[in-house]
Amino acid sequence: MASLHTKTKLYLKANSKTWDDTKVSLQNNSDGNGDFISSWSYDIAKPSDEQLASYETAGNTEEALQVVLNNRINEYPSIKDQLDKIYHDGIDEWKKVIKTTKDKYPKE
């Protein structure tokens, strides 16, 4: 299930806006009712629950992609090591190292 944060970001993007912590706040009162938008000061209407629900599939896709990208970031060699690989072994050998990680964590 996509997070409220992700669905709200997608709603904003669809309305040519970007996330701004000074214009939107999410909250969870730990009362079993889950996350909700506690403040909204954009010049567009605050999204309804139905509007946010329409971003569920796109939100799941976005979050899955972020997991893949985070896994890749954690597994890639450091920039220093990548540059050293290019210097000593050439671009084609560096590409093989990077491709191994990309193949391990493919974008869906």
Describe this protein's structure:
This protein has five helices and two strands. It has a domain at about 1-55: Phenylalanyl-tRNA Synthetase, Chain B, domain 1 (2-Layer Sandwich). The two termini are about 15 Å apart. The mean pLDDT is about 95. Helix 4 crosses helix 5 (about 90-105). The protein is mainly α and about 110 residues long. The chain has a two-stranded antiparallel sheet with strand order 1-2. A hairpin with a 6-residue loop joins strand 1 and strand 2.
From the spread of the alpha carbons, the general shape counts as elongated
N→C terminal distance: 17 Å
**Regions with pLDDT < 50 over 5+ consecutive residues?**
none
Order of strands in the sheet with most strands: 1-2
Count of individual helical segments: 5
Short précis:
The protein has 108 residues and is mainly alpha-helical. The chain has helices spanning 4-14, 49-53, 56-75, 79-89, 91-104, and strands at residues 24-28, 35-40.
Blueprint (SSEs and pairs):
Layout: H1 4-14, E1 24-28, E2 35-40, H2 49-53, H3 56-75, H4 79-89, H5 91-104
Antiparallel strand pairs: 1-2
Features:
108 residues, mainly alpha, Phenylalanyl-tRNA Synthetase, Chain B, domain 1, two-stranded antiparallel sheet, 5 helices, 2 strands, 56% helix, 10% strand
